[in-house]
Design a protein that fits this description.
- The complex is a heterodimer of chains A (about 475) and B (about 450).
- By secondary structure, chain A is of the alpha+beta class.
- Chain A has eleven helices and 22 strands.
- Chain A folds into two domains: about 100 residues, PmbA/TldD superfamily (PmbA/TldD fold, 2-Layer Sandwich), CATH 3.30.2290.10; about 230 residues, no CATH class.
- In chain A, the strands form four sheets. In chain A, strands 8, 9, 10, 13, 19, 20 and 21 form a seven-stranded mixed β-sheet that branches. A six-stranded antiparallel β-sheet of chain A has the order 3-2-1-4-5-6.
- In chain B, helix 3 packs parallel to helix 4.
- Chain B contains nine helices and 18 strands.
- The longest helix of chain B has 17 residues.
- The chains are: A alpha+beta (about 475), B alpha+beta (about 450).
- At the A-B interface, strand 2, strand 3, helix 2, helix 4 and strand 6 of A face strand 2, strand 3, helix 2, strand 4 and strand 7 of B.
Chain lengths: ~475, ~450
C-alpha cells in the first residue's frame, strides 16, 4: 500500500482534520488519493516502437451538499494544496446544512491479489515474447503484412479518507496483452485483433505458450475478413455469439440502467422499474465480485464493497446501478458502482462485469430458426444515445445466415437498435454463457474504466444491419 | 494560476542535465501545466463545480538508436531522479531502431509568433453562474424541454518543450467553453441535442441566450422521429458531422499509417482522391485558432500546408520517425493537424438542400465505424428527411454506409465554412451512400 503522506509536508492527522473540517455539514464527500504506475510496451512494424512508464500521483477532494458536487484535484499532496482545495469546495457550497452520512458497508472479501504485475516480469522477457509473436505470425505466410502486439500493465493504489478519519484502501493490478494483424490478398487488406487480460500477472495469461492462441485468433479473424463480401442492409434476424458480443447488452441496456441518468430522468428506462423490459428468460446482472476479472473491484472508488447487482430478472427491471450520490437522492443504497478513471475525475455510477445469464437453447437451434439474417461473432466498439435509447455496434466478424445455415463472412457492418425494446425481441437464450477475454474499456463523460461483459448465444428477432448491399 | 515559463524551464533543464549525466546521448522533455475551472448547471440550479490543477512531465531518452520514455505527474526532484534512472535502464534494454532520433537541427522552429491564443482574463465562478443562469433560462423556455444541463469551463495552460539539441520553447494558451445539452419529450419520444461554443478569448464566446435557444430548438425538432426504408440516397452532413470526414482523412494520411501500410490512402500523393473542386488546408498560424501552434510536439516548425489541391493529395502528415522511414522530411505534424479545414464550396446551404429532390440531413452519428485500412464507413445516424429543399420530418435508428474512396470523389461543399472547432468543414453533400432502415 502507498503511504501517501510519507514524503509530504502534511501528516495524515492534519489531512484528516482538514477533511473533517471541510465536510462538516456536507451530506457526503471524501479525499481520494491515488498512486498509479503503468507501463506500455509496443511492438509494431517489426520493431519495439515504444517502451514507456508512467507514474501518476494525486488527490481528488469532493464535497457534496444535497445535489451539488464540489470537486478539486491536484498532483501535489501538500498542506498548501489541500487547504486550497478545501477553500475551493467551501466557496462553492456556501451555506451547507446537511448531515454527513457516515454509513459505509464493510467487507473482508478481496477479488485480486496485492501484486505489481509490472515488476513481476522483466522488460527483456516481455520484449522477447513480443518478438516471438511477430516471428510466429509472420511465419504464417506472405499474406501477413503487419503485426502489432503490446503489453499494458498497471498497479493502482487508492485510499479514501472520509470525514472522521475512516479510511478505506485497495491495490488494483491490471494487465492486457493485445495482438493485431493485417493481412493482404489480391490487393485487399483486412485486420484482425484479439487480446486477453484481467487483474492478475501477465504470466497467468501467457503460460503454456498461450500467446500463440491469441495470435491464432487474431489471424483467423483477419483471414475470415479477407473472404468477406458486402453486408446486407435492412431489418433482419440476428444471432449473437457468446462472450464479447455482450457489449450489445452493455450499450443497449447497461448504460440506461446507471443511476445518474435515471435520477435525472434522461434515460429511456427511468419510468420502467418493476416493468417488463425483456423477454421471459432474460436475466442480466452487473457483478463486481468475479475473481480477477477486468471489471471486478474489491471496493469501488467511494469505498463501497462491490456486489452482484441483479438488473433484470426474468424480463423484469429490478435495480439500477448506484453510486452514493445518486443512491441518496433516489432513496436507495449504493450498489458499489461508484467509479472514476482516476483522481482527476468525479465519481459516476458505472458498470463492472455486465452479464446475461444462460438459458436453455443451443446456438445450433438459433441458426436453424433463421431464414435470412446474420450471425455476429465479434465486435469492435459500440455506443448509445441514452435519451433516445438508440445504440450501435460494429461487427468485426460476422456471417450471413441463409435458410438455417451459416453462409459467407460479411464485411464490418454497424448494427443499430433500440435499447428499451431490443431485449423484448430476444426469442432464444443459449445455454453457453461465456465471459469476454478481458479487453473492454467503457467510456462515459470522458472517463474510461475497465469493464467486462458476458452472455450466451442469443437470437434477436429484428435488428437493422447497416451494410451497403440493398 | 498556471505555472510560469521559468518554473517549467527549470524543471526541463534539470531533467535534460540528469539524463545526460546518466548516459543518454540525446533526450527531450515536455513539462505542462493546465489549470481549469468548470461550473455545471442542471435544471437551472448549480450541479457541480470542479477545479483541476494538472502538472505533468514526459521525458524521452536516447542511447544511440535505443529509445524509451517515462511520464509522471509528480515533479519533485526525488521522484524525477528515480524515474529518469529507470528510463535510462529501460532505454539500455530496448532494442535499437535505426529511425529513432531527434528532429534534424535545421527543422526546429526559429521564431515563436504571438498567435493570440492566450487571454489572461479570469472569469470568477459567480460570473460563470450568471452566464449559465441566462443560458438555462433560454434553453428551458419551451414546455417540451424536460431537462437542461449546461457547463462553463475556463482553461489556462502553459508548456515547455526542450531537448538536448538546444531547443527550448513554449507558450501559454487559454480556452473558454460553454455548452448546453437539452432533453425534450413528447408523447412518442424523448430526444437530446446540444450546442457548444469554445474560444481562446472570453469576449468572443457566443451569447448565453443564443446558445441556450439553439440547443433547445435543435432538440425539439428531433421529437417524434420516424424510421425510413433502406435505399441509396444523397446524404447531407451538418457541419458538426462533416468535420469528422476530415478527421478520418487526417488519420489516413498520417505518416505512421502510411509507413505501416495500414491506410487506404497509401501511395496516393499526387493522385486525385477528392472531386475536382475540393481543397484542404492545414493552417497552424491562424490568429486565435483553436488548433494554432508555433511548432509541433517535437519542436519542428509548422508551415501552412495545402494538403489537397483541386482534389489531388499533395502531402502526408509527417513526423520525424516515420519521415525517416519513408525517406521524407518532417513537415511539423507530429501530434497531428492544427487548424484543418475544407475550403468553401461555391453553392449556398439552401442550394445544397435543393440539389436533390430527396436527401437525408445528418445531425448526429454514433459508433466507431471508420476503418482507415479499407476505407469502409458504417455508422448509426440521426437526422431529417429533406424533400425539395425542405426539412420534412426527423429520422432515427438508421445506419449510413459507404467507402471513403468513393465518398471523397462524390463530395460537394456549401459556402458556409465557420471556424468553430480546430477542424472545420462547410455543410457537405455526398451522393450515392446506402441507408439501412426498415
Amino acid at each position: 500500500m502507498s503511504n501517501f503522506f510519507e514524503k509530504s509536508d502534511v501528516s495524515r492527522k492534519e489531512a484528516e482534520s482538514i477533511i473533517s473540517d471541510t465536510l462538516q455539514k456536507c451530506d457526503d464527500g471524501e479525499l481520494y488519493l491515488e498512486n498509479s504506475k503503468s507501463e506500455s510496451i509496443l511492438l509494431d512494424d517489426n520493431k519495439i516502437k515504444n517502451s514507456s512508464y508512467n507514474s501518476d500521483l494525486g488527490f481528488g477532494f469532493r464535497a457534496i451538499s444535497d445535489e451539488v458536487v464540489a470537486y478539486s484535484h491536484s498532483n501535489e499532496i501538500s498542506k498548501n494544496s489541500l487547504k486550497q482545495s478545501s477553500e475551493n469546495l467551501k466557496s462553492t457550497l456556501k451555506s451547507v446544512k446537511g448531515t454527513y452520512n457516515h454509513e459505509i458497508p464493510k467487507s473482508n472479501k478481496k477479488y485480486y491479489d496485492n501484486i505489481n504485475p509490472i515488476e513481476q516480469k522483466s522488460l527483456n522477457k516481455k520484449i522477447k515474447i513480443l518478438n516471438d509473436v511477430n516471428d510466429y505470425l509472420r511465419s504464417k505466410g506472405d499474406k501477413v503484412k503487419q503485426v502489432t502486439a503490446n503489453f499494458l500493465g498497471e498497479q493502482k493504489s487508492v485510499e479514501i479518507i472520509r470525514s472522521g478519519g475512516e479510511t478505506l484502501s485497495d491495490v488494483r493490478p491490471l494487465v492486457r496483452f493485445n495482438v493485431s494483424v493485417m493481412v493482404e490478398k489480391d490487393g485487399r487488406k483486412e485486420t484482425g485483433v484479439y487480446g486477453v487480460g484481467g487483474r492478475q500477472s501477465y504470466d497467468s495469461y501467457l503460460k503454456d505458450e498461450n500467446w500463440k492462441s491469441v495470435c491464432d485468433e487474431a489471424l483467423r479473424i483477419a483471414s475470415v475478413n479477407l473472404e468477406s463480401k458486402p453486408a446486407p442492409a435492412g431489418e433482419m434476424k440476428v444471432v449473437l455469439g457468446p462472450g464479447w458480443p455482450a457489449i450489445l447488452i452493455h450499450e443497449a441496456v447497461g448504460h440506461g440502467l446507471e443511476g445518474d441518468f435515471n435520477r435525472k430522468k434522461t434515460s429511456a428506462f427511468h419510468n420502467l422499474m418493476g416493468q417488463k423490459v425483456a423477454s421471459e428468460g432474460v436475466t442480466i446482472i452487473d457483478d463486481g465480485t468475479i475473481d480477477k476479472r477486468r471489471g471486478s473491484l474489491t471496493i469501488d472508488d467511494e469505498g463501497t464493497p462491490t456486489e452482484k447487482t441483479v438488473l433484470i430478472e426474468n424480463g423484469i427491471l429490478k435495480n439500477f446501478m448506484q453510486d452514493r450520490l445518486n443512491a441518496r437522492l433516489m432513496k436507495t443504497r449504493s450498489t458499489g458502482s461508484g467509479r472514476r478513471e482516476n483522481y482527476r475525475h468525479i465519481v459516476l455510477p458505472r458498470m463492472r462485469n455486465t452479464m446475461m445469464l444462460s438459458g436453455k437453447q443451443t446456438q445450433e437451434e438459433m441458426i436453424k430458426a433463421v431464414d435470412k439474417g446474420i450471425f455476429a461473432v465479434s465486435f469492435g466498439g459500440g455506443q448509445v444515445d441514452i435519451t433516445s435509447g438508440k445504440f450501435v455496434f460494429n461487427c468485426t466478424e460476422a456471417y450471413e445466415i441463409v435458410n438455417g445455415k451459416i453462409g459467407s463472412p460479411i464485411k464490418g457492418a454497424t448494427l443499430i437498435g433500440d435499447g428499451p425494446s431490443i431485449l423484448k425481441e430476444v426469442s432464444m437464450v443459449g445455454n453457453d454463457m461465456m465471459m469476454d477475454p478481458g479487453i473492454g474499456t467503457c467510456g462515459k463523460a470522458g472517463q474510461g474504466v475497465p469493464v467486462g461483459v458476458a452472455q450466451p448465444s442469443i437470437l434477436i428477432n429484428k435488428m437493422t444491419v447497416g451494410g451497403t448491399k440493398l | 494560476m498556471v505555472k510560469d515559463q521559468e518554473f517549467l524551464e527549470t524543471k526541463a533543464s534539470y531533467c535534460l542535465g540528469l539524463a545526460k549525466k546518466l548516459g543518454a546521448t540525446d533526450s527531450s522533455v515536455v513539462v505542462k501545466n493546465s489549470v481549469s475551472e468548470t461550473v455545471n448547471f442542471r435544471n437551472k440550479k448549480l450541479d457541480e463545480a470542479n477545479r483541476s490543477d494538472d502538472l505533468g512531465i514526459s521525458i524521452t531518452t536516447y542511447i544511440g538508436k535505443k529509445k524509451s520514455s517515462i511520464s509522471s505527474s509528480n515533479l519533485l526532484n526525488d521522484n524525477l531522479n528515480i524515474l529518469i534512472e529507470k528510463c535510462i535502464e529501460t532505454t539500455k534494454n530496448t532494442p535499437e531502431d535505426e529511425f529513432n532520433s531527434l528532429p534534424d537541427r535545421d527543422l526546429f522552429a526559429k521564431e515563436v509568433k504571438d498567435l493570440n491564443i492566450y487571454d489572461q482574463t479570469h472569469i470568477e465562478n459567480n460570473q460563470k453562474i450568471e452566464y449559465l443562469k441566462k443560458l438555462e433560462a433560454a434553453a428551458s423556455n419551451d414546455k417540451k424541454i424536460v431537462n437542461t444541463e449546461s457547463s462553463f469551463t475556463q482553461n489556462k495552460s502553459n508548456f515547455v518543450l526542450a531537448n538536448s539539441e538546444g531547443f527550448c520553447d513554449g507558450y501559454k494558451s487559454s480556452s473558454f467553453t460553454a455548452s448546453s445539452v437539452t432533453v425534450a419529450k413528447d408523447e412518442e419520444s424523448m430526444e437530446r441535442d446540444y450546442e457548444y461554443s469554445s474560444k481562446c478569448f472570453l469576449k468572443d464566446l457566443d451569447d448565453a441566450d443564443e446558445l441556450g435557444k439553439i440547443a433547445a430548438n435543435q432538440t425539439i425538432r428531433k421529437l417524434s422521429p420516424k424510421k425510413i426504408g433502406s435505399e441509396e440516397i444523397a446524404i447531407i452532413f451538418d457541419k458538426r458531422i462533416a468535420k469528422g470526414v476530415l478527421n478520418t482523412f487526417a488519420s489516413a494520411i498520417s505518416s505512421s499509417a502510411i509507413s505501416r501500410g495500414t491506410s487506404f490512402l497509401k501511395d496516393k500523393v499526387n493522385q486525385k482522391i477528392f472531386s475536382d473542386k475540393i481543397n484542404v488546408f492545414d493552417k497552424p498560424d491562424m490568429l486565435k485558432g483553436l488548433g494554432s501552434r508555433n511548432f509541433d510536439s517535437e519542436g519542428v516548425k509548422t508551415d501552412t500546408l495545402k494538403l489537397v489541391d483541386q482534389g489531388i493529395l499533395k502531402h502526408y502528415l509527417i513526423d520525424t520517425y516515420n519521415g525517416k522511414k519513408l525517406n521524407l522530411k518532417s513537415n511539423g505534424r507530429c501530434g497531428g493537424t492544427s487548424n484543418l479545414y475544407f475550403e468553401n464550396g461555391n453553392i449556398s446551404f439552401k442550394d445544397l438542400l435543393n440539389s436533390n429532390s430527396k436527401s437525408l440531413y445528418i445531425t448526429e452519428t454514433i459508433g466507431h465505424g471508420s476503418n482507415i485500412v479499407t476505407g469502409d464507413y458504417s455508422v448509426g445516424a440521426t437526422g431529417f428527411l429533406i424533400e425539395n429543399g425542405e426539412f420534412k420530418y426527423p429520422i432515427n435508428e438508421i445506419t449510413i454506409a459507404g467507402n471513403f474512396k468513393d465518398m471523397f470523389q462524390n463530395i460537394t461543399l456549401a459556402n458556409d465554412l465557420e471556424f468553430k472547432y480546430a477542424t472545420n468543414s462547410p455543410t457537405m453533400l455526398i451522393e450515392g451512400m446506402v441507408v439501412a432502415g426498415k
